[in-house]
Specification:
Layout: E1 8-10, E2 13-14, E3 17-24, H1 34-44, H2 46-52, E4 61-67, E5 76-81, H3 91-103, E6 113-120, E7 123-132, E8 135-136
Parallel strand pairs: 3-4, 5-6
Antiparallel strand pairs: 1-3, 2-3, 4-5, 6-7, 7-8
Amino acid sequence: MRATKTIHVISAHAEGEVGDVIIGGVLPPPGDTVWEQSRWIARDQSLWNFVLNEPRGGVFRHVNLLVPPKHPDAQAAWIIMEPEDTPPMSGSNSICVATVLLDAGLVPMQEPETHMVLEAPGGLVRVRADCRDGKAE
């Protein structure tokens, strides 16, 4: 059977906690803010169920959806999907998203240190990432 839709996911983890990142294949949900977009995902649950339940997911997996930022200071934004919730903020998911953005070249990397601003549903996150040999550490 041929797939009719492809979702592009980069696997990531922060100290073993899975925080995969959807980088393409999913349109941003409706909403004027990233918080409103996350509430739409929580209410609709179709994407949440698709990526977090078997056979693609499980209780061990968190998935982050990259969306265009709403705040002018942010380079990127993301919506957090966890097995029980779509929370406003998550430290481990912030690490996963920042790492994927840098390692995939979606945000320019500056060695030895990259500074960027990300937008979570709960607000702005200021990131300082140590970088070496083209990789975020």
